[in-house]
Amino acid sequence: FPVTIAVVCANPNGTSVTAINSMTIGGISATKAVEISLANGVSSIWFAVVPTGTTATVAFTCNATASRARIAVYRVVGASNTSSAYATESNSVLAGLSTGVSINTINGAVIIACSAIEGGGFTNWSASVTEDQDATTGVSTRSFSSASNNDAPGGSVSITATAADAANRTIVMAAAVFA
Known about the structure:
By secondary structure, the chain is mainly beta. Helices cover 0% and strands 66% of the residues. The relative contact order is 0.26.
């Protein structure tokens, strides 16, 4: 059977939350691929090798009490590297319209990205990834979004997360490639 990796993008809320300390996926300890935080926004991507065809509970702990959280769960089947992401990048902007990264990929790789926006508004993603989720975190001034590309081209790929309401926002974005 091909190897299945569960990948989780997470965005916990809380006035002091700046990091996710640990995560389990179906009771299996996950590995942090990339994380970035700024002004109470966290974008974090974790992964674990999991059994094929099962459902699982995702649980995580933060450095401070999180009042609300959003997650997006992805399944990557057939990855040849299960010990680390092929590539990771992150970026942030304190008061801007967008933030972006350039990330190295190989043909057929999977790109997963997530963003958190403080100050309201949703995320528009560049054409290199497709938006999978865009939701508020239960606090009207915060939103979380995730996007992916399950057949990335080789080379450097630019990914941009832009505030959909065209207002200056605090944006944190993380991206990881699995191959």
